[in-house]
Amino acid sequence: MSVRTGAIFSGRRGYVTETTKQTIALVDDDRNILASVQMTLEAEGYQVRTYTDGEQALQDLIARPVDLAVLDIKMPRMDGMELLQRLRARSSLPIIFLSSKDEEVDQLMGLRLGADDYITKPFSQRLLIERIRALLRRNEANRAEAAGEASGSLLVRGNLTLDEARHRSQWHEKDVPLTVTEFLLVKALAARPGLVKSRDQLIDAAYGDNIYVDDRTIDSHIKRVRKKFRQVDDDFNQIETLYGIGYRYKEE
Fold this sequence. Notes:
The chain is of the alpha/beta class. It has helices at about 15-20, 30-45, 55-65, 80-90, 105-115, 125-150, 180-190, 200-205, 215-230, and strands at about 25, 45-50, 70, 95-100, 115-120, 155, 160-165, 170, 175, 195-200, 240, 245-250. It has nine helices and twelve strands.
């Protein structure tokens, strides 16, 4: 994990109360970087757990879940890619993936394996904080919306069922595990069947309007969503691509 020096900032914006009980996992084999980022996150009111290798992180995160994890790629014993894949097999935990600026293949692979977001290195700690806040807000807003709308927390479109209160998605009554980002994308498309959603609209739905995300990020998420549904049903084809325009959920 590479971080630009001079990027540390303190929690002077009044966010401490908001994040007091939220726990962030940092996984990186560089202890100096871990200590630096941990100090910044704790200044913002987060609780932080640090891990120096993937195997150690996997065992503890399964036993003691956190609110969000930040994973670097290069680590001993189990790298970030494998850790991401194994966490995704068990959990929809929000995950931010770190990759080098010139390693586009790693970025795309991370998204296809289930990362909710990625940051390229070197990065400022301010950027990391904003991405963490944005992803946690999306997760909390999705849960709060479901909890506050008991009658509307269940979205049914033909064979698709989205239960927001339980963050549960089903196809033909079979569970399809989706990450926070994937769930929000499917929800945005299925809410208005037949209506074309541009990539910009999907970015706003999944990330919010204050976060810049490359169009290819949405494409990678959609590919992974399709793959997950096709693991349940080989004939799944409800999410259509309109080249040069965007995506839509096909009415059944």
